């Protein structure tokens, strides 16, 4: 085990199973956001959680603006952890931007991964003519990034309720707001730029790893059209549209999220047991 990587990314290992589930948080979040999901898997899987460099309880001193100038730097974080813990046959569970980070990691080292579970994925957040609905116009993103520079607290106060999109769960909005505000503003600004300006649409067709896409029915950050687009271009994927609303169903609707995950993994297990191609 590479203790330097474990410390750098504040890696946490839970569970008693043999196969590993690797949980990767979204922008402005931390591994703490998985706490409603992970207990259900502790008896059957080995769970690995971590914080990207610059997020949560990671080592901020390890942040390098050049390394993290695009999503490949974050994908390398994932691969570093896989290497440090000698992980193979990994079920990668990613939220939001981590869906594409996980995809990139799996393209670089497909031997490490058996399946991807994507919660609220988006390969491109910006609308592209009439052919692609990403959810935002480019001017929307530019204004968002400009607001981050001028008034970071105001930006957090604005974005958190947009992400959660559920006024009946103010505690979730408050938690996300506090998570945003606990992140170094300069690091958060660069991560936001990398997240919202990335375009990974061409990478989808390169993957053959089985994928489950979990799409909230009302998501202002990654609309249903985006989940459908991802499903249509990942040739070995399933799409489950949840009744949940907002961009964080693993927090706001953990039971429905868990039900979809466990049903998918059970089908995969049954298919493998009977020697079927899944």
UniProtKB/TrEMBL annotation:
GO molecular function: any one? hydrolase activity
Q: Which domain of life is it from?
A: Bacteria
Q: Which UniProt keywords apply?
A: Hydrolase
Note whether Hydrolase occurs among the keywords: yes
The protein's matches in InterPro entries, at most eight in alphabetical order, are given as: AB_hydrolase_1 (IPR000073), AB_hydrolase_fold (IPR029058)
Q: Name one Pfam family in it.
A: Abhydrolase_1
Annotated TM spans: none
Acetylation: is it a keyword of this entry?
no
Domain annotation AB hydrolase-1: ranges? 20-253
Family indicated by similarity: Belongs to the AB hydrolase superfamily.
Q: What is this protein called?
A: Alpha/beta hydrolase
Its ancestry begins with: Bacteria, Pseudomonadati, Bacteroidota, Cytophagia, Cytophagales
């Amino acid at each position: 085990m590479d203790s330097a990587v474990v410390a750098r990314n504040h890696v946490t290992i839970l569970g008693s199973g043999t196969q590993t589930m690797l949980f990767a948080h979204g922008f402005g979040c931390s591994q703490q956001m998985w706490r409603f999901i992970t207990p259900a898997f502790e008896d059957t899987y080995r769970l690995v959680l971590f914080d990207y460099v610059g997020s949560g309880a990671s080592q901020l001193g390890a942040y390098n603006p050049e390394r993290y100038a695009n999503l490949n730097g974050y994908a390398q974080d994932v691969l570093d952890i896989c290497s440090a813990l000698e992980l193979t046959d990994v079920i990668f569970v990613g939220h939001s931007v981590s869906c594409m980070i996980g995809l990139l990691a799996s393209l670089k080292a497909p031997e490490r991964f058996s399946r991807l579970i994507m919660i609220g994925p988006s390969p491109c957040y910006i609308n592209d003519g009439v052919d692609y609905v990403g959810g935002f116009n480019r001017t929307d993103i530019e204004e968002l990034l400009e607001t981050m520079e001028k008034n970071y607290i105001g930006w957090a106060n604005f974005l958190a309720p947009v992400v959660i999109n559920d006024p009946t769960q103010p505690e979730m909005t408050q938690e996300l707001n506090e998570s945003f505000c606990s992140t170094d503003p300069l690091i958060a600004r660069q991560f936001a730029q990398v997240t919202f300006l990335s375009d990974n649409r061409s990478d989808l067709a390169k993957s053959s790893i089985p994928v489950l896409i979990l799409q909230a029915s009302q998501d202002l950050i990654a609309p249903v059209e985006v989940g459908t687009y991802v499903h249509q271009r990942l040739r070995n994927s399933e799409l489950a549209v949840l009744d949940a609303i907002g961009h964080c169903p693993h927090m706001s609707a953990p039971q429905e999220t868990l039900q979809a995950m466990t049903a998918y993994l059970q089908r995969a297990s049954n298919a493998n047991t009977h020697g079927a191609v899944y």
